[in-house]
Amino acid sequence: MELCGNKAAWQVVPEGITSINLESVGLLIQEAGYIVGIQNRLCWTFSGPCDLTLYPSGKLLIKSEDKELAASVAQQHVSAWAHA
Known about the structure:
Layout: E1 2-3, E2 9-12, H1 22-31, E3 35-39, E4 44-47, E5 51-54, E6 60-63, H2 67-79
Antiparallel strand pairs: 1-2, 2-6, 3-4, 4-5, 5-6
């Protein structure tokens, strides 16, 4: 997890994953309580405890100034969501 330039977002790139199925991962994120916003082949967005942007590469952008919340979401992504 690394801080993005604006210091209000975190980028998570799961190791060993070069692409994901957006629909499968998106469903898991929805099941975790997030609401889908945009859905297209370039990215999916979600709102909830923090805002998320999911990319086909598996990268997840977590928009939150709360580092602990972002770390928790990042852990969930790399351990479960990204492997769907």
